[in-house]
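Quick question: what would this complex look like in 3D?
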Amino acid sequence: KAGVTQTPRYLIKTRGQQVTLSCSPISGHRSVSWYQQTPGQGLQFLFEYFSETQRNKGNFPGRFSGRQFSNSRSEMNVSTLELGDSALYLCASRAGTGELFFGEGSRLTVL
Amino acid sequence: AQSVSQHNHHVILSEAASLELGCNYSYGGTVNLFWYVQYPGQHLQLLLKYFSGDPLVKGIKGFEAEFIKSKFSFNLRKPSVQWSDTAEYFCAVNQRGGADGLTFGKGTHLIIQP
């Protein structure tokens, strides 16, 4: 069974640009959530999607947004990038048991 | 708001030593509890989880954790660590039956010296 797939794995952007990250969950998993991991703040919840609907959102500004498609794939977008947005962005898909399976992440560097 | 506190940010042990990593959470309702591990260069992996039932849960690679409701704690233990246990360990919690995401602790960086 394939795991959670995130693309791209690495990317570099400059301040003010926007970025879109993609996540394909484990086949059969309908819930996808996103997390930001930084050395200072650790792992922080961004949002979760289920059946194309956002179910919950963490404490992040409106520049961070996401969506989920009918095939459960999800994208997150960060607009007007700031230096502080440099982080590892993790996607997780949720099994029916409630367990989360994480992808390897997309490492974003903002210059 | 939920919060998770991991007492030790860095732990250094010798092989064969016993391990206990502390985790306390702050939440008034019923929770699910998790320990995740992140080996160098790898993705987060689930070590073990507690949803209900026996408060002593066993996970992969010889790890176990005990849920003590009265202390709001979920400490991770291993009787004899190996060099390959060097990793970052995260405790996490979410509301049982809820749709919210996981709240993670800041993590404990464990280094096992051969």
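Answer marked as accepted. Chain A touches chain B at residues 3-4, 33, 35, 42-48, 50, 55-56, 58, 90, 92, 97-105 (CB under 8 Å).
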